[in-house]
Amino acid sequence: MSLFSRARLEKSSLCMAITGGPGTGKTYTSLKVGTHLGERICLIDAEHGRASLYAREFEFDTAVLPNFHPRTYVHYLKAAMAEEYDVIIIDGITPEWDGQGGCLHQVDDIQRRGGNKASAWSQITPLHDDFIRAVMDCNTHLICTVRGRERYAIDTDNEGRNRVVKLGLGPIQQDKVSFEFPIIGTMDSQHNLQIVKTVCHSLKGAVMFEPGEDLARILSEWLEGDSYHDRTAYLGDEQVNAAMSAAVRTNRWTMNQITALIRSYSADSVATLGAESRRKLVNALTASTGGEWVTYNLKAQGARHRAS
User: Could you give the count of Cα atoms lying within 13 Å of 155 in the half-sphere of its Cβ?
Assistant: First the structure.
């Protein structure tokens, strides 16, 4: 008997990290996406209770961490899983690394008490590994926010002179944490979410303004696994219009070409397209960009138009 079997994408849970600087909308985006992924939301608050500022807009349960020790994170995460929440948000995981009682603080404390650095890390690394393992083993939808900061490097130009090169926003956590999350998005100051890492091909290269239901819908369909392909999912007007806007803005299609394609499905407009025709239309538009697409929220378009 073979040790191997045919690979099949089973229904699974989301494990996603959202990084960004202060004020970029990491917490808000997590709650907005999470609300469209499930009904019962739990938020583990490592930001001094600030998530409760959104309590009027979102319904969720919360607990403020008493300290940032890795074991505390694991304890609260397992407690949330035991209560069978639909979505768990950890806001955020940066303090586990460099907050009061976090890994770096624990290492410093051991050194202050006379231990050497190697000995300190030999004690703390297993605690951090247990935290990462708990995050990866979570059996429900999990969104983690991570503080970010600009990264720089010294490079040499063609004339041999040194120059500072901006590498982009990096998460404030252990260096290897980016390898653990299958999906990572980065928020900017304009509240755009750029997908910088994904195993969901439908999100490759995506940039979304204030994502919520649109991102949750894509994630939900993907997480359904192979069973999703046995049914036809209905795409709403917002999602179809987003794909059309992306195709036009990236100069892959003109509106005349899109209108002709809609008419080829025996429809006069998006509103009269059937479920299967909607999917064919979106597939045709996104296929021309190799799966890379950009969604533009109507509010963002209006803001840009007014600014110009």
Answer: 8
**Angle ∠(120,121,127) on CA atoms, nearest 5:** 110
3-state secondary structure 182-195: CEEEEECCCCEEEE
306 SS3 class: helix
Residue 194 tokens, joined: 């750029």
Q: Please state, in angstroms and rounded to a whole number, the distance separating the CA atoms of residues 265 and 273.
A: 7
Question: What is the distance between the alpha carbons of residues 308 and 290, in angstroms, rounded to a whole number?
Answer: 30
* Token digits of residue 214: 């649109």
Query: What's the topology of domain 15-199?
Result: Rossmann fold (3.40.50)
Say which amino acid occupies 238. E
* Three-state DSSP class for residue 47: coil
Q: Where are the domains of the chain?
A: 15-199, 232-307
Q: Radius of gyration over alpha carbons of the chain, in Å?
A: 22
Task: Write the Ramachandran bin of 87: left for phi over 0, alpha for psi from -120 to 50, otherwise beta.
Answer: beta
- Scanning the structure block, which residue is given the tokens 């951090």? 128
Sign of CA dihedral 286, 292, 297, 300: negative
CA 140 to chain centroid: 15
The answer to whether 186 and 169 are in contact (CB under 8 A) is yes
> How many angstroms separate the CA atoms of 160 and 155, rounded?
9
Per residue of the chain (308 residues), what is the pLDDT tens digit? 788 887 776 778 999 999 999 999 999 999 999 999 999 999 999 999 999 999 999 999 999 999 999 999 999 999 999 999 999 999 989 999 999 899 999 999 999 998 888 999 999 999 999 999 999 999 999 999 999 876 656 777 677 777 766 555 677 788 888 889 999 999 988 889 999 999 988 888 888 888 888 899 889 888 886 544 444 455 678 778 888 888 888 888 899 999 999 999 888 888 888 777 887 888 788 766 544 444 433 333 334 333 43
